[in-house]
Amino acid sequence: MRRILSALPLEFRVLYRQFLLRVIDLETLSVQADVVAFLGQFAGLLIMFSLIQAGEAFLSTLGPPPTPQVLHLMAWHTEHSSIETMMLVVGLITVISWDATFPDRRDVMVLSPLPVAPHTILFAKLAASGAILGMAILALNCASSFAWSLVLAGIPRALRFFPAWWLTMISASAFLYCSVLTVQGFFALLLPRRIFLRLSAILQLAAFGLFVSVYFFEPTVAMPGIFASAEYHWVLASSPSYWYFAFFNQLNGTLPPELGWLAVRAWVGLGIVACGATASLLICYMRTMKGTVEEPDLVPGAEGSHWTPRFGSALQTAIVLFSFRSLTRSRQHRVVYAFFLSLVFAIALSLLRGNFSATTPRAVNQDLLISTTLIMCFAVIGLRSVFPRPISLTANWILRITQLCPSIKYIAATKRSMLLLAAIPAWFVAAFLSFSFRPWQQVAEHLGVLAFIGWIFVEVSLIGFYKVPFTCSYLPGKSNIQFLFWGFFVVLFILIISFAPVELRSFGDPSSYAWLLAALAAVASGLWAFNRHRAESAVLYFEELPDEMITTLGLLSGPPADMGE
After folding, report:
1. Residue 125 sits in the same domain as residue 178
2. Measured between alpha carbons, how far is residue 148 from residues 170, 243, 314 in Å?
3. Is 443 exposed, middle or buried (0-12, 13-18, 19+ CB in 10 A)?
4. Are residues 290 and 368 in the same domain?
5. Distance CA 446, CA 72 (A)
6. Cα(513)–Cα(446) distance, rounded to whole angstroms?
7. How far is it, in rounded angstroms, from Cα 173 to Cα 136?
8. How far apart are CA 161 and CA 154, in angstroms?
9. pLDDT average, residue stretch 353-368
């Protein structure tokens, strides 16, 4: 491998290394950021998913041997769900690195004076993006591919099952990646740069919502008889995951003849989007590369006088508006927050779909309580996740030299931003989704409980956050992504699911409901007092640095000898 890399041009190798590390915007990183550790944590998270799937595969063999029909159904369900999961992960990575493949202002301003050909930049960017996608594919299938090959195919047929699995995952990932590139390139070529930058935000949000919604709400067609039904023909024809499910079975030699048209769609679709992505990339690099320097990454607002609402004092209003405009105008923050908004959208869509299918108002149940609590949770945690990411480190000095008020007022303004931009909108979304539930008294009681839950989430998320939003440098690799992810999904989900029955039993019992509100108010007030006490002596910081560590050589194995001896 080293000989192959050393044979490549030096310009390509240098650019490839830089583009690979620019999966996170380098202008927002701390001076001691470790991007490699950050990528390693995400790879470890995907490997953990793969190990869980492998364990699930081997656990399925502990019971009595399944009948051939049951094994066939399990194989079809596992194959399709694995393809769906792979396409979701690749889709989210592709949208997160939305502009990573196309040239931006920095590429043009830095590389255009140098003797570097545009095709070298293009190939280096494609190689870097391919390396990230390849890491995701490898990490998500490293253990599960071996396990399912042995369980579903057996040792003799695993020699065909295993390569068919990997070729399908690579092809499905390439299809989704090229599809996004084709859409991006199409709009970048047809629209002026300024309009494209404005439209890019909508396209990113739409792509996040589309990928997550399709993954959670796509109809499941697992029975062989249903595949041949005319009722589900439109689902199969419009779903790329079913195309590549047929693609896999064609390579594995298990595809029924009546589903051959689905495999043809996979081959044709891959060829079309590959040609579209190639054409759009070449044209963009040859025709529009010089035009990208004329527009900034942060799109300027429309000219003219604008009325700005007041959100308290002048400092609180300034920080709230600064936070809101950072979310709406900055690509890097918009992408991260869009992931959490897509989860909120998926949960809301699930409740709305149930409302549309119901002929009469539904009774308040645990599904409503859990779903609306998750909406509040994702909204607050999503905004908290983007608060530490700065707009530009070169602009931080403005906020540092203009700190004329005590730190406690800045922290209070940050809390108000969290309430106005996350907790209160999430509460209104939950109220809208609750309109079709009855009785009204229980709906109102739940909204009262949800208000306290939102207050608690805000206070917990801002513990130790002594920063102005979007001004402190980002230090990837400092926090353990795997620990935070599993802690969130295990601990938080257990708490929410356990709390829902308690809340539901309190409805209709005034004394129980009063005790529940009193307990939530006590927790929220305690957290508020704790944060306020810490904020009185807090010092705002703008540069994220790793904790200092003192390293000793460990030469002394016992007590020091007496110097007089």
Report:
1. yes
2. 17, 20, 60
3. buried
4. no
5. 45
6. 10
7. 10
8. 9
9. 77
How far apart CA 293 and CA 113 sit, in angstroms, is: 13
DSSP bridge pairs for 437:
362
- Residue 320 and residue 261 share a domain: no
543 falls within a domain: no
In a domain, 551, yes or no: no
Q: What's the chain's Rg over C-alpha atoms?
A: 27
Q: How far, CA to CA in Å, does 316 sit from each of 207, 388, 420, 473? A: 33, 18, 11, 22
Question: Which residue in 207, 194, 208, 461 sits closest to 329, CA to CA?
Answer: 194
Identify whether residues 245 and 337 lie together within a single domain: no
Burial 207-235 (b: 16+ CB within 10 A, else e): bbbebbebbeeeeebeeeeebeeeebeeb
Where do runs of H (alpha helix) occur along 387-418? 396-401, 407-418
Pair (116, 32) in one structural domain: yes
Alpha-carbon distance of 296 to 279, in angstroms, equals 25
Residue predicted with more confidence, 283 or 523? 523
pLDDT, tens digit (0-9, with 9 covering 90-100), for 87-126? 988 988 887 777 777 767 677 777 777 777 777 888 888 8
**6-15, 38-47, 260-269: range with lowest mean pLDDT:** 38-47
Considering the domain architecture, whether residues 261 and 186 belong to the same structural domain is answered as yes
* Residue 553 within any structural domain of the chain: no
Tokens 């003219």 label which residue? 304
On the question of pLDDT at 180 being above 80, the answer is: yes
Residue 89 lies in a domain: yes
Rounded to two decimals, what is the model's pTM? 0.72
What does the alpha-carbon distance between residue 385 and residue 335 come to, in Å, rounded to a whole number?
Answer: 11
Q: Counting beta carbons within 10 angstroms of the beta carbon of residue 354, is it exposed (0 to 12), middle (13 to 18) or buried (19 or more)?
A: middle
Residues found in the chain:
565
Q: Are 218 and 332 contained in the same domain?
A: no
- Measured distance CA(14)–CA(141) in Å, rounded: 30
List, in sequence order, every residue forming a beta bridge with 29; answer none if it has no partner.
474
Can you say how many angstroms the Cα of residue 198 is from the centroid of all Cα atoms in its chain? 21
Q: Tell me, what amino acid is at 250?
A: Q
Domain with 152, as residue range(s), is 8-294
Domains: count for the chain: 2
